[in-house]
């Protein structure tokens, strides 16, 4: 009887721990949208777009997925303060965004026309793009290179709090307190 109770308690503990871990991991994932989905949602309820521009062959892109976007603080900010988009810069699909249709016609190597537009012709991966809009004007801010979780948290705060309107990133950084240990 005692052995049965121990097995029962152990089973409940394992199931409970697995359920908590499973639930926590679901909450920690970025809910990536397509660029079209993000544009539609942005029109209904304005928030900035965060676009992770990557390629399948980019090692630093994969490292940023693994180390930065998997961080619970980063995924929480992206899911709640932005419309997060993951965009393959070598995609072959036709995309309509901001009233324009973009394709991958092969004129820019393997790059999609939308990637060329978002990155202002400077194709470097990974590059994250912050897209904000005000009064029918769209502002793009592409930032090249790998960013660890702490640096990404700083950038996400700077853009989500619209601090770029009143202070430089350097000024914001001086008063910024990270939630990442």
Overview of the molecule:
The chain is an alpha+beta fold and 181 residues long. The protein has a domain at 28-150: Glutaredoxin (3-Layer(aba) Sandwich). It has helices at 2-28, 35-44, 59-67, 72-81, 113-118, 149-160, 169-175, and strands spanning 49-54, 83-88, 95-97, 100-102, 127-134, 137-144. It has a 4-stranded mixed beta sheet with strand order 2-1-5-6, sandwiched between helices. A hairpin with a 2-residue loop joins β3 (95-97) and β4 (100-102). α4 packs parallel to α6. It starts with a helix and ends in a 6-residue tail after the last helix. Residues 4-26 have low confidence and may be disordered.
Q: CATH homologous superfamily of the domain at 28-150, by name? A: Glutaredoxin
- What percent of residues adopt helix (DSSP H or I)? 40-55%
Assign the CATH class of the domain at 28-150: Alpha Beta
Low-confidence stretches: 4-26
Q: In percent, how much strand structure appears in the residues? A: 15-25%
**Oligomeric assembly:** single chain
Key attributes of the depicted protein:
globular, 4-stranded mixed sheet, 181 residues, Glutaredoxin, two-stranded antiparallel ribbon, alpha+beta
List the topology elements:
Blueprint (H helix, E strand, L loop, with lengths): L1 H27 L6 H10 L4 E6 L4 H9 L4 H10 L1 E6 L6 E3 L2 E3 L10 H6 L8 E8 L2 E8 L4 H12 L8 H7 L6
Parallel strand pairs: 1-2
Antiparallel strand pairs: 1-5, 3-4, 5-6
Helix pairs in contact: 4-6
């Amino acid at each position: 009887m005692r052995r049965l109770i121990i097995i029962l308690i152990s089973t409940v503990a394992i199931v409970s721990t697995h359920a908590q871990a499973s639930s926590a991991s679901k909450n920690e994932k970025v809910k990536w949208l397509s660029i079209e989905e993000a544009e539609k949602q942005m029109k209904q309820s304005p928030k900035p777009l965060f676009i992770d521009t990557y390629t399948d062959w980019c090692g630093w892109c994969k490292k940023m997925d693994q180390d930065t976007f998997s961080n619970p603080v980063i995924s929480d900010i992206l899911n709640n303060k932005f419309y997060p988009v993951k965009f393959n810069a070598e995609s072959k699909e036709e995309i309509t965004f901001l009233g324009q249709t973009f394709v991958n016609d092969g004129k820019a190597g393997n790059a999609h026309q939308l990637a060329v537009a978002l990155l202002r012709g400077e194709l470097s991966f990974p590059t994250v793009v912050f897209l904000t809009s005000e009064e029918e004007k769209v502002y793009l801010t592409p930032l090249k290179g790998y960013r660890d979780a702490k640096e990404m948290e700083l950038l996400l705060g700077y853009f989500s709090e619209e601090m770029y309107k009143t202070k430089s990133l350097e000024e914001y950084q001086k008063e910024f307190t990270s939630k990442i240990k």
